Every structure is written in structure tokens, then in C-alpha cells.
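Subject — a protein and its fold
Fields — amino acid sequence, C-alpha cells
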Amino acid sequence: MLTPGQIRPAISMALESLEIPGLQAERGQVSDNYVLPDGRRVITYTDRFNVFNQPVGQVPYKGQVLNQLTNWWFEHTADILPNHVIDVPDPNVTIALTANPLPVAVVVRGFISGITPASLWKQYEQGKRRIYGIDFPDELRKNQELEHPIVTAASKEFGRAHDHPLTHEEVIKNGVHPALWERIQEMALKLFLRGRQLCILADLILVDSKYEFGLDLNGDLVLIDELHTPDSSRFWRADTYDELFEAGEEPENFDKEFVRLWYQAQGFADKDTLPPLSDDMIITISQRYQRVFELLAGRPFMPASYPAHKRIMVALHYAHVVG
């Protein structure tokens, strides 16, 4: 893990976006996507950081962590479900096969937690006891482990500020075939349980995780997007969870939740505009992301060079993406 002194000079050089001449970018919250004439997709994980679906700055090495950790997980879950990866030519870049994304995002949840509108705890705290079509008992506490992991779904309609919760029946009404939906749930649970097994070896708890699925050109189900990253999942330190939970305190986390909690504590959770991250917060985020990579991958984080644009373009040249 890099020191603050090593991270600070990179703040001004963090990767905000990537332009590939001759190709039109599809920009998501954290990645820039390009579809090549041959159908391959170039996914560049930038350093953009969002909180409550609002951009608040760039965090050096965040994109590298997301890309490399996702591909580490892909290697360790390929026996469960194929993924879309063809090549990883650069620490920030994945070249993927064409897949048609399904119109639902899936989250497997092992605990009742979270402060975003779609989270279990936020809805439970508001008095709801039937959430995502699932009944919950009274007297649950924030960050309490559920009796067993549950699969929840949300729509991915363009333009929504937040994912819209769906029941299983609504998923099918939205056009997902019942047999396909059953397989998606089965695969999501298997991926989550594999994630839990590997996390506990790193003294981490995989609390919940978002999964994205698509259909390849043959109509087969494939895993796409990120997998078990600090952006798509919550990770808690395992050996202090019980003590902190009993004390009513927040677990030690290695994801973006601590940033959400900070903005909430400052009264910004429901604001239309958030103040940008301070340099000190940027450094803390970068270190936490690097640390979760090191804990899971079992090796030191090796930072790629900044500025990143020239390095990435050279890698894309050798990958025969650009001339």
C-alpha cells in the first residue's frame, strides 16, 4: 500500500477520462467504454469517484484497483460462470466480448445495512417490513447478519438517480424469462458464497455485492462489469465485527461506505450537490482500496504510472485496438 506522500503527487494526475481517436465513448459513472468495429468492447476504469450517484472528484489508483481486482475475482469464479474478459492489456483496461446487458441489476445481501435509498437498512428504518418482495421481522438492527443471504433486484432504467427496487415478479414482468431469472439468482448466490469463502481467508466479511449479467452472441449467460470491488460491494473487517456490532458502532470497512457515512454525518446525504473530496480524504480512499486489493489478492499493490493516457494508448496499440 502506498504512503500518503506517494499518493499526494498523483492526485492532480488521476485519470478522469480517456479519449480514443475515432471511437465514441459510452461514459458510465466510473468507466469509459468503447465498442470496436469487430464488436469487442474496450473498458477503461477511470479514477472518477461518485457518492450518492454524484461525482466528487478523482482518486488516484482507484481505477487500477477496480480493474485488477475484478479480473482477480473473474479468475477465481470462472468455474461458476463465464465472464466477458478477452484481455487485460493495461492495469486500467479490460477488452471484453460483446454482451447484451440484462435490464436488472442483482444484489446479494448477507446483512441488513446501507444508507442509500435502495439499501435494506434505509428502507427498513423507514418502517418497511416487506422489501424487494421479501418479508423481514421486527427488531432487526443495522448491520445485523441475515438468517441467510437473499437475492434482490433493481431496474437499470436510464436517467434514474438510483436503481429502482423490483420484486421477483416484477423482474419477470420487465421481460426476463422465468427460467433465465432462476439461473441468474442461482449464479448470483454461488458467486456471493465463493466471495465469502475467499474473503474470510483475508479476514474480511463480504457483506453484500452487486452483480451484472448479460447474454453473449450465442444467448448464453455471462458475467459482466465489476466483481466484488470496493465500489460494487461492502467489505468489513471480520475480527472486529462482533465487538463493534454489540457496541452499536459501524464496522471497519474497506469500501466506499465510509465516504457515504462521512457525507451523511456532515448533513449532505440528501443534497443535490456535494462538496468535492479533500486531498486527505482522497488519500484515505486510495489507501483503503489498495488495502482491500492486497488483502484479497495476497500480493502488494504495484502502482501503474501517471499520467495514464500515454501508457494506456501504447497498451491499446499493442492490443491492436488503435493504430
The radius of gyration is 19 Å. The chain has a mean pLDDT of 95. The chain has nine helices and 16 strands.
